[in-house]
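User:
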Amino acid sequence: MNIEKAWDILKNEGYKKTDKREQILSIFTETEKYITAKDILNVMKKEHPGMSYDTIYRNLSTFVNLGILEETELTGEKHFRMQCEADHHHHHFICMSCGNIKEIPFCPMEVLQNAIPGYEIENHKFEIYGNCPSCH
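Assistant: Predicted structure:
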């Protein structure tokens, strides 16, 4: 997702444009990796020494709820990245060492649905974790 689309969503939902929100979104547009609230805090404390973890986390939660950010849990901590703008359904391989992401261009749900006949799947999330070729 690009930053202009993110601001359109925020504006349509009644959120004001602030320097802090702008900087948080900017950090996400500069990387394809999943990053933590702590990563954002480390960057933002340089310009905003009084910035709190709670302020960042509240904004991240808002961005996730509005579909601006994706979230996943890695090593017991929530990680975030900008929502994909792909025009097709897909999943991701996430490198546990460097955080790089590789798109998986298909979905295994058809195979899984066949394995549990009679069950109605309403939603799913599928991620693969490991090490990319650079970190292996």
